[in-house]
Design goal:
The protein is of the alpha/beta class. It contains 15 helices and 19 strands. It folds into two domains: about 90 residues, Arc Repressor Mutant, subunit A, CATH 1.10.10.920; about 300 residues, tm_1862 like domain (pyruvate-formate lyase- activating enzyme). Bound molecules: S-adenosylmethionine and iron/sulfur cluster.
Amino acid sequence: MTASLATRYAMRVPRYTSYPTAPHFSDAVDADVYRGWLAELEPAQALSLYFHIPFCDTLCWFCGCTTKTVKKYKPVGEFLDLLMQEIDLVAEALPGRFQARHLHWGGGSPTMVKAADWQRLFDCIRARFDLAEDTEIAVEIDPRDMTEDDVSALAAMGVNRASIGVQDFDPVVQKAVNRLQPFEVTRNVVDWLRRYGIDALNMDLMYGLPHQTARGVTAMVEKAVALRPHRVALFGYAHVPWMKPHQKNIDEGALPGVAERWEQYSVGAARLLDFGYVPIGFDHFALPDDGLARASRAHRLRRNFQGYTVDDAPILLGFGASAIGSLPQGHVQNAAPLKDYRRAIEKGGFATVRGTALSAEDRLRREIIERLMTDMAADLDAICARHGASAGAFATELESVARLEADGLVAVDGHRMTITDQGRPFVRLVAAAFDAYLAAGQARHSQTV
Ligand SMILES: C[S@@+](CC[C@H](N)C(=O)[O-])C[C@H]1O[C@@H](n2cnc3c(N)ncnc32)[C@H](O)[C@@H]1O
Ligand code: SF4
């Protein structure tokens, strides 16, 4: 039944890691605007930091991230110099000293960074920001890059959360996507992380990759669960070769179709539930005592550029090429091409090239979309009341949601929408009904399931 819905709704919709979404950022928000926004912040406000390391040593053919392969370490070291200059520049533009509650290192592969450079980076950050005793410091990890010494260096920096890239354990799938990563490599890294006290672990898995089958996804989940990560992400492979030309290396004939993707997601999710994980949003799972699961139960779950999070800081500063930041005034993004990023920072300026200033309507729609994506429910009367608006203004949106209601994906009671269990993987479709920018850019996103 739902497989046919997956086929019917195999349309392309955003993942709503922000609203408005990144394709709708414009160059009207530039370095000067960002400087002005930074100056208006209050040091008492909670703040988080995101650092983007846009390098990997090999390229996975499925990769949708902003990254570049490098054979030598020199460009990485040079980039880190720029990153530290950027940290200094931004910190100087802030009206005082702030405490950072969450640090997230993403990429690319932050695990390309050598131990001595981690020390330099953290010295620079601690010189500019206060870190609390319980500040979360998370790093995305490519296990193929890691030695026990690297793990020990991360632990010495205070890293307390690791997100481990796995994708699939099946060597046939791994070969088809140019990512050879024997199970033992992942298991060793998990063991080292725990040994050095980094025990808040997330694992990234994928479905919809070439040669994956429902049976294979079940085996993949069982292997992952044997390593007992507190959180598991089950991402649907987004095949967008017109945006990521290296994805053309993937044999499209080996890719599962919409119905097969649906089956893979369903069996993967069901197996995770069998093992006691609870669903978080549309693509995450967590053990019931994990922070994400607790935040989800308390309706405090948030969604930001890194995905589902407990981080509710109103300020997220992004550093590094392509990094996105989010301030109370709006979103900002740095230049993605390394040469543009380098030129801007070397000139002593910010690398901001685009963004969006939030209007009152954006803020209202953003809250509706974020509640749908996190709580799987949104009460338009309550949300509109907080924004001084009337839920009656969303009659057109509710009409398009009615079509999804007829298919059992969402229940609508007056102005309250609740995503059904079978609708959970389709929540982006309900959210999309409230996206005022979507119509123009639909072809640019990945498919729903
Ligand atoms: C920056 S990588 C994680 C860290 C490290 N680079 C690694 O791959 O191990 C972020 C994650 O995004 C997911 N991902 C990358 N490309 C994707 C795509 N095209 N569709 C869906 N998920 C994707 C993968 O699960 C990957 O682990
Ligand atoms: S998935 Fe991770 S390791 Fe692979 S190319 Fe992308 S960023 Fe690099």
